[in-house]
Amino acid sequence: MAENAVGRLEHDDGGIVGGPLIETGPKGRGLGAARALLVGMLFIQVGGGLQGVLLGVRTESEGFGLAVSGLVMACFYLGFMIGTRLAEHFLAAVGHIRVFAALASVASAVSILHLLWINPAAWALLRMLFGLCIAGVLVVVESWLNDMATNATRGRLLSMYMVSSMGGLTLGQLLLNGGDPFGFELFVISSVLISAALVPITLSATSAPPLTVPEPLSLRQLISRAPTGVVTAFCSGISHGTLLGVGAVYAAYEGLPPSRIALFLVSATAGAIAFQWPVGSLSDRVSRRAVIFAAAAVAAAIAGILPLIEPGSGLSLVLVFCFGGATFPLYSLAIALTGDWVPSSQLNGASAALVRTAGVGSIIGPVAGGVVMSLTAPWTFFLVLVGAHAVVVAYTGWRIVAREGVPVDEQGECVPWSTRASAMAVNMLRRPPRSLSRNGGSGPGKAA
């Protein structure tokens, strides 16, 4: 992908020292310098993954109710959306290391504070604050990695980033088995893990990078260019928010023990890790919209079958693994499809709009899941997942029939991505120049 000329602010760790510059390409510092950042992010994700599944279990045991539990868990994604916007202002004011240290410290404290105020309102506020902090931390790490990436190391950095992100989330969910979820120990472990992330970052000799300001692109413009990407990102946000937000709540209300609740969620994230690259690679070789259609159809079918299977059984865990493998790549496919239709100069702005779109879906998902379960039965958790993917199937199928797609040989590369990544991370993506005959590099042209 061609480098974009965009305005950026150059600063040291203490504040802004430079003015607007023209981006001439990231500085290569090798993979060694990235290890401290990735280790720090791994600790953050492990601690955050543990806190997410732990709170899902505790909302049930504390008697919050299904609808209220969904609202509490959705507040993480509300905070995450706010955090991605505020982080850039924080970075411009005080620099990367200070922002990382401050937000990680607050996130660590938030984990402990859940023990002091056990009520829905307090937990909702704490969950929102935690989401804000995690978003800010990820923006710091992603912008740092973007500055380090070169053409030679970009692919490996992206792979290491995804392994640290999804692998950390999975390890955190497994740690539910490391203590009594109805006691205080796991809250302390989550806090300690998040605090430990400060060590490799603050002791790193890596200099803080400049802050890149992306060229803006409104959601209306994005819908006119790549409506399928927007719909897919929104519905994948609903799916991932529902699964990660109230999946543990559903499992707890079904009477599963903590060990099985952990396996339920780990099966989904393990499926994501296993299938992200194969599904993305397939979408580079055939019609990307067809892959989106097929993945969403498989996810909808599996979600429709799961209520018929005994919760927590071996067969259900295998199906959840396959469901994770079908649903989690959808967000990556949405970004890749959008990249096929948006000029390179607007890719960062487009990805920022997709992050917000998926974020709204991630807020709606847990709320809808909690309300539906409270009005009916816990198993209807899966109906929300069926509905989200059915929308993708119907809309993508219509677009395939109604509009000609991008020729396969003109499609960009699909890179595995997470709905918990910020738009800053997309700066690490680079695609070769391609023909803009579909839109001439400006104007909406035909839409995906």
CATH topology: Growth Hormone, Chain: A
User: Order of strands across the widest beta sheet?
Assistant: 2-1-3
What fraction of residues sit in β-strands? Answer: under 5%
Q: In the CATH hierarchy, what is the superfamily? A: MFS general substrate transporter like domains
Largest sheet: number of strands, sense, barrel closure: 3 strands, antiparallel
Instruction: Provide the domain count.
Output: 1
Low-confidence stretches: 1-28, 430-445
Tally of alpha and pi helices: 15
Q: Structural class of the helices, strands and pairings?
A: mainly alpha
Beta-strand segment tally: 3
Order of helices and strands: EEHHHHHHHEHHHHHHHH
Mean pLDDT: 83
The name of the CATH architecture is Up-down Bundle
- Morphology: globular
Radius of gyration: 21 Å
What does the model show?
The chain has 448 residues and is mainly alpha-helical. It has one domain (30-204, 215-428): MFS general substrate transporter like domains (Growth Hormone, Chain: A, Up-down Bundle), CATH 1.20.1250.20. It is 68% helix and 4% strand. It has 15 helices and three strands. A three-stranded antiparallel beta sheet has the order 2-1-3. The longest helix has 32 residues, at 30-61. The chain is globular. It starts with 6 loop residues before the first strand and ends in a 46-residue tail after the last helix. Mean pLDDT is 83; it is low at 1-28 and 430-445.
